[in-house]
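INFO  loader      accepted 1 record
INFO  loader      residues=270
INFO  predictor   begin
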Amino acid sequence: MANVNNINVVIEKANDRMKEVKNTIVVMSGKGGVGKSTVAVNLAIALSLEGKKVGLLDVDLHGPDVARMLGGRGQYPTQVGDEVVPPEVNGVKVISMSQFLKEETSPVVWRGPLKTGTILQFIGDIAWGELDYLIIDSPPGTGDEPLTVFQNLKNITGSIVVTTPSVVSQDDVEKAINFLGMMKQKILGLVENMSYFVCPDSNKKHFIFGQGGAKKLAEKYDLNVLAEIPINQKVRENMDDGKPTAYFGDPEIVAPYINLARNIIDQYDK
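INFO  predictor   done
INFO  writer      dumping tokens
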């Protein structure tokens, strides 16, 4: 996928392909370990459950997890004529680097140009078809992968920034917010993951990582908090097992993702 002879041709092809996508949303964070991929996968599922045509693109080339989380482990793109067709898993079309590795544990040891070319080919060479939403899951930070997306694709319609309530997370996420400002990208809002834990014995909320971190950032940058998603053991178990919570979870843990999807839809359907 990474052998790119003429990057301008690849960029043009990617942008032509994106004309079939109504809304492209990048899910990112300045901090690793905040559950960004969990949010991206469950948002994609929730949008699909709301009746939308959805694709999910994993541009985390070094730690590609979304296919497993979505339930697509062992499902691969297929060649149909001159096009590569992505598998549809639980109602969502998905492309991830993990689908192109000989072994799941094989490392991807690439520098910038190879990563840039591959990400653009993931868009331009894939027959996504008509989509209401393409969700792009970006790795932590503000490096090659999000730069490739924002600098080369013309119709990114918004970004979601994922944080946790902790001060350390806020520090790094603030960098991502400023990065999106530099890229002149619209921020749809913040998602606070691991917002609190509800004790199953007492039904009491415990704010393990602090409280109100996303609200502080939202007030500082005049942003919306789109969702506050609690910690729940079943969410972790579901994602490990390839059973995305928004599709397979109990109502109380599904609700935050459905509400997040509806918040997104409301912004675009105004």
